[in-house]
Each structure stands twice: as structure tokens, then as C-alpha cells.
Design goal:
Layout (H helix, E strand, L loop, with lengths): L1 H18 L33 H13 L3 E11 L2 E13 L4 E6 L9 E5 L2 E6 L4 E5 L15 H4 L8 E13 L2 E12 L9 E7 L4 E8 L5 E13 L2 E11 L4 E12 L18
Antiparallel strand pairs: 1-2, 1-13, 2-3, 3-4, 4-5, 5-6, 7-8, 8-9, 9-10, 10-11, 11-12, 12-13
Length: 282
């Protein structure tokens, strides 16, 4: 009723101005009404309250990337019969500009190795060769540092925009953090030639939109590997996982990322996302 009264008053004012020979100006929209308070029985995770699958997937991607971020982490690659390899790295992610820089840090044997995504191009720098090289799109799905994670994974090569999403169900699931209510979303590629997977199945924590599990399937619909996320902590208004474990289905082996620090920002030092930044400074 208040909105109708305001609209009627605006119309009457405009009519008066026209009668007086004044320019009525643009029409005035009524102020939006405050949303009704949710009742005690309201449940944002109820199946009938589900947003569309694409919205859930975009929100989950925002939880992990925001509009930009910077993180320090350690990659651990485990192989049966061999000592684990521990590789510290740092990553700068300009999600808005679709640019990512990743650099391996000392004391890793491959310290100084770096990768730069300037979409749609991916560059790499190998200290032993001392040269910047372009990586063809067909190799974005190759293993990163001989582990279970790929270049596409760590450099955000493909994302929500490259897939069509369908909501399968809402289910209770045991995770590394305990039981959660999760949306189960299936993603299929819009263009299979631009992404490394024929199908993804995600479990996304309903209240917080945090990805807790992702299964990767090939063109034969065979499960190739599984990503489990845990050690979830509050960071900048979101529930951010600090442990990422990628496990291959066959042969069984795993790579783990432990995030030491993450900061969400859209401000990066000048020259961060340039091929010149790949090479070590003199």
C-alpha cells in the first residue's frame, strides 16, 4: 500500500508540473519494499528453495576466487615407495581480468619455475632452459609438476563459464569437516575442445556455497580423479578450504595442497601479469 501511495504521489506531482508548463523529467520508480522476514520454518537448503544450478556454481567459484586473490601454499606429491615431494609456491589470481601468475619458491628443486595465464594464452618459464614458452591449449590438462593436479586446475584455465550446469539433488554427505548438506551439481562442457573433462560432479555446501568435493570424468564416463576439500576457515566473509587433496582413481595416488595464507584483493603490483614477470629479477 505504501508503494502504491508513493507512486500515486509521484504521478500527481508530474501532472502538476506538466500543467504548470514544467518538464516532468524521467519517471520516478517507487522505492523497493523491504523483503518479508523469513519465518521459523524457512529453510534456504530446502529442495524447493534451490536457486538454479548455474547460480550455485558461480557462487562456489566466487568463494574460492572472489574478484581476485593472493595465496601462499605448499604442494605435496606422494608416491608409493618414494619420499613425498614438498613444493612451496605463491599464486596471484586476477579473477576479474582472467589472469593468473604462479611461481615455485625455494627450497624446492624447481624453484623459479613459473606459469602465467593471460587468457586465452598460457606461458611458462623453466629455470633450466632460461626461456619463456607458450603452452598449447591441448596441454593445459597436463599434470602440474608430475602430480595429480593439472595446469588447468591451478591456473583456473576453465571455470563455470565453460560448462552448463544441472542440479541433481540435495544430499547429506560426510566430508573432511564432518556432515554437510550439499547441492550435487553436474557440469558438462559447452565446447568439449576447450576443457579437459567430459563431465564434472560437484558437492557444494548449501549454506556457505563452499565446494567440498569434485569428481572428474573422461569421455568414456569413467571416474579419473577426485578432489576433496577440507580444513575450512572463515576468510573475508566466506568459508575457505585450506586443504585440497586430489586423488587419482587408477593407479591410486594423491597430491595435496596446504594453503598457508590467502588474501582476497583486486590490487596487484604493476607488472605482475606480464611475461617479463615470469623470469627472475636481476
Amino acid at each position: 500500500m505504501r508503494a502504491r501511495a508513493r507512486l500515486a504521489a509521484a504521478i500527481a506531482l508530474a501532472a502538476a508540473r506538466v500543467a504548470a508548463g514544467a518538464d516532468p523529467g524521467p519517471p520516478t520508480a517507487p522505492a523497493p519494499e523491504a523483503p518479508a522476514a523469513a519465518g521459523p520454518a524457512a529453510d534456504a537448503c530446502a529442495a524447493e528453495a534451490a536457486p538454479d544450478a548455474a547460480s550455485i556454481a558461480r557462487r562456489a567459484e566466487w568463494v574460492l576466487r572472489g574478484e581476485g586473490s593472493e595465496l601462499e601454499a605448499t604442494l605435496e606429491i606422494a608416491r608409493e615407495g618414494r619420499s613425498p615431494r614438498t613444493i612451496p609456491f605463491r599464486l596471484w589470481d586476477d579473477a576479474l581480468g582472467d589472469r593468473v601468475l604462479l611461481r615455485v619458491l625455494p627450497p624446492a628443486a624447481v624453484a623459479g619455475a613459473a606459469w602465467l595465464k593471460l587468457s586465452p594464452v598460457l606461458w611458462s618459464y623453466e629455470p633450466k632452459e632460461g626461456a619463456v614458452q607458450r603452452i598449447p591449449r591441448a596441454h593445459w590438462g597436463d599434470p602440474w609438476l608430475d602430480g595429480e593436479l593439472s595446469l588447468d586446475d591451478v591456473l583456473r584455465g576453465s571455470g563455470v563459464r565453460d560448462y552448463s550446469q544441472a542440479l541433481l539433488r540435495l544430499e547429506e554427505r560426510e566430508t573432511l569437516e564432518g556432515p554437510v548438506r550439499a547441492w550435487v551439481i553436474e557440469s558438462t562442457p559447452r565446447d568439449p575442445t576447450t576443457v579437459p573433462w567430459a563431465r564434472l560432479v560437484d558437492w557444494i555446501d548449501c549454506p556457505h556455497a563452499t565446494l567440498v568435493r569434485r569428481e572428474h570424468y573422461d569421455a568414456k564416463n569413467e571416474l579419473v580423479r577426485t578432489l576433496e576439500l577440507g580444513d575450512v576457515r572463515e576468510v573475508a566473509g566466506r568459508r575457505y578450504p585450506h586443504r585440497w587433496v586430489m586423488t587419482a582413481a587408477d593407479p591410486a595416488r594423491a597430491s595435496r595442497i596446504e594453503v598457508g595464507a590467502v588474501r582476497f584483493t583486486t590490487e596487484f603490483p604493476p607488472g605482475t601479469f606480464t611475461t617479463r614477470s615470469l623470469q627472475p629479477k636481476e
